[in-house]
Design a protein that fits this description.
The protein has 553 residues and is an alpha/beta fold. The protein is built from 21 helices and 20 strands. The N and C termini lie far apart (76 Å). 54% of the residues are buried.
């Protein structure tokens, strides 16, 4: 059978297991769009409003499923718009393939219309960047991209597709299917050595993070920790990888972590780090552990050999998939840790339960208490970036069947596209996006994508009329000198309604429950505009208190 490059590409993606592609149409890959005309229900094209939103959706899909999220964009501006999703997928260790239309091969090096050197632009953002010059090589290079995106530390791959190559015809067949990839196992010796070190601890701590975790692995780790009475903390935005209701869960190490969590990392004498990258956010700017040899003895288990010893030198480094390592753990180990574990758990609960009522019209402490009481089963929470993210990430408790889609990269605007991708993948889940008012306006146009795709998501806009994170930094560094952070906002509820969703403004805490019930009942999704105060930038310090502390120092 003779087919053009666009059809060969689409058939290869289907053979590899792709079921959905997110994108914005462009003239540089018309042959691919034409091939997608015939693949509805097998490989669906989700028509997005901006390439950044499409790339966020692909990154979120990869994070949620472990299978590459596919994004299709046009050359030049389309590709540069999509770069934010590539960066996010890399820092999230999420498999993703970005397919970019490219100028014809006969026009290279002339600065042709929208010409970009993708190897140069994406070289430091992605795991691998290539360009397919010959139509016959499509199956080879797309299959290689699939393996590169999903093996080792997962991440994004970028492939440029010259438009004349896509129009050429070939008798080459698509690949027959995706390979079955087996992640590396830990040897019995490595597991025994790690457990022997852990047993010497007075204050052991397990840190969990990264991609690749499944229900069996999460259950195995939790069972081991509970039987051994060892506290477990998650890395930045991975608290959904363990049941937060377990007596061993003691919080997350990330941006703005509590003094309690900082104390746990400092006081621990042996740390079993599973899938952790030891980034800036989870180490409080690399201050909680000394670089390169921390006082804490570290057992670092990671699927990528490049992560072991990248910043901190472990006592024991184990090149293995963490989810395979935990399946090989013994039933339990014993040590005098009960009091240490109990205090760790109490500190986590106290941060949530003792938070004061927040000043202003809508109290987010009360809102989160309400959500904890009524959300169960299959739930996906998403968020972008900003001070508001403390509410879904620290004041919600993730149980079995719940997922958090939140960017390690701190990308504003991720939450709405991630919610769309999450609902498309898991239509039976309740999908809630938390968005700050600034964060919402980065990608709110993708609500039209949600309605067109027939998915109902609920967006909670935490609306305080300011870029809250930057305002907090300003007041700390340059108190009373507000510059560039105040916003005059549109009517968010009306915007939701204009997209075909339910839209409602909530101006009193006591009105939230009923409004949220109406939002959940809407078949087209909803936008709830929650009016909060600028003073409530953090749960435990008001804006006035931040400013006063800076002025007095």
């Amino acid at each position: 059978m003779v087919r053009n490059g666009g059809r060969l590409l689409v058939e290869t993606l289907i053979a590899l297991g792709a079921r959905r592609a997110f994108g914005v149409p462009g003239e540089s890959y018309l042959a691919v769009l034409d091939a997608l005309h015939d693949t509805g229900g097998v490989l669906d094209f989700v028509n997005c409003r901006q390439e950044g939103g499409a790339a966020f959706m692909a990154a979120a899909h990869g994070k949620l499923t472990g299978s590459p999220g596919i994004c299709m964009v046009t050359r030049g501006p389309g590709a540069t718009n999509a770069s934010i999703g590539v960066h996010t997928a890399m820092q999230d260790s999420a498999p993703m393939i970005l397919l970019v239309g490219q100028i014809g091969t006969d026009m290279r090096e002339r600065e042709a219309f929208q010409e970009v050197n993708y190897r140069a632009v994406f070289g430091t953002l992605a795991k691998w960047v290539t360009e397919i010059d010959r139509v016959e090589r499509i199956p080879e290079l797309i299959a290689r991209a699939w393996v590169a995106a999903t093996s080792g530390r997962p991440g994004p791959v970028v492939i440029a597709l010259p438009e004349n190559m896509l129009m050429e015809e070939t008798a080459v067949a698509p690949i027959s299917g995706a390979p079955r990839l087996h992640a590396p196992d830990a040897s019995a010796t490595a597991v025994q050595e790690a457990m022997a070190l852990l047993e010497t601890a007075r204050k052991p701590l397990i840190l969990i993070g990264g991609s690749g975790w499944d229900d069996a692995a999460r259950s195995a780790l939790q069972g081991f920790a509970e039987r051994s009475d060892i506290p477990v903390a998650s890395s930045f935005r991975y608290q959904d990888q363990i049941d937060n209701g377990s007596a061993v869960f003691c919080g997350d190490a990330g941006v703005g972590m509590s003094a309690h969590t900082k104390g746990l990392l400092k006081e621990a004498d042996v740390i079993l780090a599973l899938g952790i990258r030891f980034g800036e956010n989870m180490t409080d700017g690399y201050t909680l552990l000394t670089v390169p040899e921390p006082a804490q003895k570290i057992v670092h288990v990671h699927v990528s050999d490049r992560e072991i010893g990248k910043v901190y030198q472990p006592v024991i480094g184990i090149h293995a998939a963490p989810e395979r390592f935990v399946q090989a753990l013994p039933e339990r180990i014993a040590g005098p840790w009960a009091d240490w574990r109990r205090k760790a758990r109490e500190g986590y609960l106290a941060f949530i339960d003792k938070a004061p009522a927040q000043p202003g019209p809508v109290d987010m402490v009360a809102v989160c208490r309400s959500l904890r009481g009524r959300l169960d089963g299959e739930v996906i929470l998403t968020n972008g970036a900003g001070n508001f993210t403390v509410w879904p990430t620290r004041f919600f408790r993730f149980g079995p069947g719940m997922r958090l889609l939140a960017p390690q990269s701190g990308s504003m605007g991720y939450g709405i596209p991630a919610a769309v991708a999450g609902k498309l993948e898991r239509p039976g889940a309740t999908v809630i996006c938390f968005a700050g008012d600034g964060d919402f306006q980065m990608t709110c146009m993708e609500l039209a994508t949600a309605v067109q795709a027939g998915v109902a998501v609920v967006v909670l806009v935490v609306n305080n009329g300011t870029y809250g994170t930057i305002r907090a930094h300003q007041e700390r560094e340059f108190p009373s000198r507000v510059s560039g952070t105040d916003m005059t906002n549109p009517d968010f509820a009306a915007f939701g309604r204009s997209c075909g969703m339910h839209g409602e403004r909530v101006e009193r805490t006591e009105d939230f429950d009923a409004a949220f019930g109406r939002a959940l009942a809407s078949p087209t999704g909803a936008v709830l505009d929650l009016v909060v105060s600028k003073e409530a930038l953090t749960p435990y310090r008001t804006l006035t208190e931040i400013r006063a502390a800076a002025l007095s120092s």
